[in-house]
Fold each of these.
Amino acid sequence: MADTARTLMRHVPAVGPETDVATATRLMRRLRVRHLPVVEQRQCVGLVGEEELAGATGPDDIIGLLCRRPAPCVPPDADRRRIDEQLRRDHTDALSVIDGVHLVGLIEGDVL
């Protein structure tokens, strides 16, 4: 069976745009991930990573102002070639896995 986004992704909790930097940072450390999807009204609207968090002016900054919008993403059935192309096209090292408009997982480039 070929690797697809569904087989390569991790299930991670999403954060809302109102989440503060300190909370997102703690969650990323606890989960040992470098990115978190940002969800609003059950739709993935962005992706926040260590790079975006480094641009925060303080721990109370909110993720909605820092996250990458729209979220770089692929569908669950995307194959490894499409995932690699999307990572290059979006100049990123992580992708949200989106089924329709709903978040189903996260792929970080180091799993490939």
Amino acid sequence: MADILHLPEEARSRVAVEERRREPKLGHRKFKRDRHKRIKVAFFRYCYYDPAFKFFVEQVLDADFLTLPEATKRTTEIGEQNSTDYVCTPFKHILGDYVEALEAGADVLVQFGGPCRLGYYGELQEAILRDMGYEFQMLNFSRGIEQGALGWAKQCLKTVNPDINIPAALPKLAATANMAVKLDEARDFYLANAGFERERGAFRRVWASYRDALRAATADRDINEAFREAMDAMRAIPLDKPADPIRIGVVGEMFTAIDERSNLELDEKLMAMGVEVHRMMNLTNRFIRYNEPNLRRSAADYLTYDMGPTSTLTVVAAHRYAQEGFDGVIHAKSAGCTPEIDCMPVLQRISADAAMPILYLTYDSQTSDTGLDTRLEAFYDMLSMKKEKTK
């Protein structure tokens, strides 16, 4: 404050107000681990994968999973006020989640955040949280990857539980991946059909019941049984689906393209319009079954080199949607997401070559539902008119 004493009184007042605005809204509480209690582990909020996170913590790490309530405006404000303006919105969302997890008593925070700069954000978020006065342990999946899959798994597991039985934990780790795959497969069916249900909310009820069943799962057989029951239930839902519905593919970075909080429920808005929604970007396609060279070869006219993070999958997905005659594509990204900005000229080429419209959506913490609704409605109307002309 000494540096501003030479300023006029009005200017000093403005600076003081700005300094107060930037102060975190939280006190500097410290959470220390009680050795006599079970370890509480928390993930950040991410899409629909919380059952898989819970299974990983309870069945693989042999710890207690800390479930976070729905995010609120306060969650976002905490992340914004303790982050620089120049980081992406997912960073701010995750930081807010971590603070609320620590407030709720988490001992360990898990950061698996991604193939882009988010892969480096774990250390930065850990430093920010420690500067705020929190004591905790960070399980950062970006550490130890140079040791290979087995070495990485051992390091991650022992970070949380040094007494863990590695041979018993590894099959459970495979079951965690199976749950993520099953969640993605069920979600794909949901996106393609929920917009045409005769009874409003039927798909949502089955989806909610499915996730509840997965949260109770303790073994691979439970996961597979829950999946079979959910798929049977969704296939049994009566539909009023036209023979040639409007089909839109969603592409983009791994948070904004998938996470409902990050994209303001983009999927639900599209399905409410009666759209068949498709999205290749998910944990299965980007991590579990990801083969970048093969993907790149499938779109060789547009890709020569690995563009990094989520770029290859973005371009390949858009190319496939064009080949399959989709009516349009939506490209969703966070403000300042460099890899996805690099994709945009390639997407424009695909759009021109296939005469397939692409809507570019950039989200930040100020993006509003009203503005998004207006753009989506205009895009839908354009696709509808284009479809009518081609009949």
